[in-house]
Amino acid sequence: MTVILGSFFLAISGGGLLIRAFIASDYFRISGIQVENGSRVASEDIVALSHIRTGTNIFSLNLERIGRKIEENPWIASARVQRIFPDLVVIRISEREPRAVVNLGYLYYLDDEGEIFKLIDSSDTLDYPVVTGIDRKNFLEEPEEAHRILKEAVALLDKLGRRTGFGLEDVSEIHYDPVEGYILFTCAGGVPIHLGFSNFEGKLSRLDRIYKDLESRLATLQYIDLNVADRVIVKLDAKSIRGKG
User: Fold this and answer.
1) pLDDT digit string (tens) for 15-30?
2) Phi, psi at residue 18, to the nearest 5°?
């Protein structure tokens, strides 16, 4: 019986050594790293962030740690790293898409979750609506409230993007005022459109009915107010009235 048990444990030990030798063989040395779904961040930059090197044993990789390292790039929302045996590593990334620019003293990109994710530099484009009215001090002291406001701003952008009348292409700025609510500014003429805090869809639908008539006269308007039920209040700029006189 002792001989049988000894032979059994010897077989297990020998098998373990064989497995370790097999795993450590050149058969499992990484020969290729493939990056999928990237467009903003170059594949070579993703590979550099991963610190994966060809020739490394594929079993030595800590996949979760590598993914977290890649996600340190502000453009990367998520990174999933996968071994494809025997010698290939695939990195699948999901990138953030800017929805707006947020002015907090410095300019930042805002994503579709209402998250500020990148300080804008000289290589970035500013061709997005600007969200203003959030004080940097309040943003740091009350982050949950600031995030709620930014998510509402993104939801408003979504509504504008689905419209065929007055829509996203007509808006240059979304301003938040704690008393007056959300105020849109038109690209043409910078006219403020007062939306308040609710019923954005209904208010924008009212504006749609007359916006084509107003569009050519935006330079003469002081503001548009949609906060009175079933009405669109249009205030003419005093200078334009005096000019006609």
Assistant:
1) 556 556 656 678 999 9
2) -65, -40
